[in-house]
Amino acid sequence: ESAWGMDKLRRPEELIVNRYVNLLLLSEIRAELFKREASIIGKRWELEVRLEKLYAAEPADSGPRETTSKAAASMRDKYTDKIRARTGGHWANLERPAPVRMSSLSLTSG
Question: What average pLDDT score do residues 11-20 get?
Answer without folding.
Answer: 87
